[in-house]
Amino acid sequence: MTVIVRDVRPEDAEDFARVRRAALPFMLTNAAQVAFDWAHAHPDAHDRPLVAEVDGEIVGTARLGVAHDAPEPGVGSVDIYVHPEKRRLGAGTLLMHAAEEHLARRGASTLYSWVLDDPEFRGFAERRGYSARRSAHFLRLDLASAELPPLVEPPAGVELRSAATFAADPRPLFVLDALTTADEPGDVGAELTDYEHWLATTWNHPLFDPELTTVVVVDGRPAAFSAAQTDGAGRYNSGMTGTGPEFRGRGLAKLAKNYSLHRARAAGCTEAFTGNDAGNGPMLAINKWFGYEICATEVRHARMLG
Known about the structure:
single chain; Aminopeptidase; 12 strands
């Protein structure tokens, strides 16, 4: 069997999503989201999604680009996903080679890659010069049967609202998202400064669910939020939960997440997923309190080019 690596075509979105779901079932992926991401990639990211084919069947995918919003230049990322039934055919190796060549031409000097914490996958990365860095967990909650903490009345001066109520002017949520993203744990920092790009790629993303996204408003100001993603198939994901620096230590993130989970279950969601940096003890404790359990772990690997 011959493996061929090529750029994606619009008609590949469904198969691209199918491979991603099979390789990483803990993340929400569908064809609409994949096609949207391709169409709205930032030009400075130099995104180039790739697929690997065997006899005309897509068996592997690569997501790659330059971290255009990182404070330091020359940072790239590449994540390889191969269908579990099509491994050891060479698809991953060819995808990685093509991705590294593209990113090197675009000025990347450091590459990061998420790798499942499994000897086979970690060995694949290490043989190609990648070294392990930080780790992160995928967590799952059986939302259909979970005993969620009871809803409580918010304190005086605190209001719980859905993000949909900000539809006329989402900028206050952008400001809060930028504040919480700036100090999120990770190897590569991110600075949200482009409001129009945020509107196009976050607010209008097909997985983003403004009705289930909960915002805690304190004295009229957005103070904390729990962003919700849904795929229309009963799966819910906490895309980001954060609190503005001046409002921390008051349990507002937990309040937002609990309200969002209750509303998600009422809306028919049966599975809830989230992800946590392994070193983010406070958020891991919150998710354990809700009943989430770790279902997989990824390790961030890095390689210096040249």
